[in-house]
Design goal:
single chain, alpha/beta, 6-stranded mixed sheet, 45% helix, MADF-dom, TF_Adf1
């Protein structure tokens, strides 16, 4: 395949949608912004008029939120309607990113709990998946921490399923124009096996239940109702039996985490609740600028009153 046929793609740092490099300036998250910033991982972010970038970040309470941040100092480069503040990029950076993604896919494929949602919950709970992501991060020699690895894997997995769905579309006007195969499509083909296994298992289970639980011939006017009730009862009984068997196999009782105490709201919570309701009514651009101004104001005031804290 000729080199000029390769299309570079980037990921939006706000909505995480994968976008071809040539289409970045038309992306929905950049509407109303004159410039955008692209980092070394090929994530792009809108740039405000004051030079700060908008990005998604995890807060201390584990909730992700949109924050304003300063980009690294790099020379600006104009690209038509949007100016792009970009980090230096090269073919080597693209190759390194592709290599890292291939290594990530290879390592994830070794941990079925990270991709096979057909497994029972006891085999893919948070403890198990957390340890698995730590192992993946170590195998990548720390190039991605566990959270970054999980985030990048989600993007790769979702892209594969989207490409797989496009492959199954019937021919006609609704089918997208045929393009070259996505670079990771073949390596991620084990996800297709998981999907097929789920459908096959479901079909086999239904066939066995129907063979073992053939209902007697009902009255003519109630045939469909009795057949449906018999099948539903059989499925429910089997699920209860499986649950009991699973619980008996556990050597120690499951200890549920204690719920945190309820936090009593005070006048500060009430103030921010009222302010938040009004701020959400503003257009996106004005809303973000107001949030930045408020953050700057609070930072300055708190700095002056730090001796009281």
């Amino acid at each position: 395949m000729a080199f000029n046929e390769i299309k570079r793609v980037n990921t939006c740092g706000i909505c995480e949608e994968i976008t071809e490099e040539s289409l970045i300036s038309n992306h929905k998250c950049l509407e109303g912004y004159k410039r955008y910033f692209t980092d070394g991982n090929r994530y792009f972010y809108p740039v405000c008029d004051n030079g700060l970038i908008m990005r998604r970040s995890a807060m201390d309470n584990g909730v992700e939120s949109i924050v304003l941040d300063e980009p690294s100092s790099h020379p600006e480069k104009n690209t038509g309607e949007h100016g792009a503040v970009e980090e230096p990029s090269s073919v080597n950076n693209s190759s390194d990113s592709t290599e890292l993604e291939e290594l990530l896919i290879e390592e994830v494929s070794k941990w079925e709990a990270l991709y096979n949602y057909n497994l029972p919950l006891i085999q893919r709970n948070r403890t198990i998946t957390g340890e698995a992501w730590k192992a993946v991060s170590e195998a990548l020699q720390g190039r991605l921490n566990p959270k970054e690895a999980a985030k990048k894997w989600k993007i790769l997995r979702d892209t594969y399923y989207r490409k797989l769905a496009e492959e199954k579309l019937p021919s006609g006007s609704g089918r997208p124009t045929t393009k070259r195969k996505w670079k990771h499509f073949d390596q991620l083909d084990f996800l297709r096996d998981v999907s097929l296994r789920k459908k096959t298992t479901s079909n086999l289970s239904n066939d066995e239940e129907n063979e073992e639980n053939i209902p007697p011939i009902p009255k003519k006017n109630r045939s469909s109702t009795l057949s449906s009730e018999s099948t539903e009862s059989s499925v429910a009984i089997n699920k209860i039996a499986d649950a009991i068997t699973t619980m008996n196999a556990i050597s120690e009782p499951i200890k549920l985490p204690a719920l945190p105490p309820l936090v009593k709201q005070d006048e500060v919570d009430g103030l921010f609740l009222i302010m938040g309701t009004q701020i959400r009514k503003l257009p996106e651009k004005e809303r973000n600028n107001l949030i930045f101004e408020m953050m700057s104001f609070f930072r300055e005031k708190i700095s002056r009153l730090s001796h009281l804290l």
